[in-house]
Design a protein that fits this description.
58 residues, mainly alpha, 0% strand, elongated, Histone H1, Hc1, structural constituent of chromatin
């Protein structure tokens, strides 16, 4: 559950930059969004692996 909370926190942290990029055409915000999305992808992958391992052990 800790990692899922991290996912939610990361999405919430990116919200301001997403708004700046799409609504205000701020290129630097787009870079931060891309980095955050990559971090989100990596975190999601680690959660997937953890769930799969737990499922296989049961």
């Amino acid at each position: 559950m800790k990692k899922f909370a991290e996912v939610k926190a990361l999405v919430a942290a990116l919200e301001a930059d997403v708004d700046k990029f799409y609504n205000k055409s701020n290129s630097a915000a787009g870079t931060r969004v891309r980095k955050g999305m990559q971090d989100l992808k990596n975190l999601a992958q680690s959660i997937r692996l953890e769930v799969q391992d737990t499922k296989n052990k049961a």
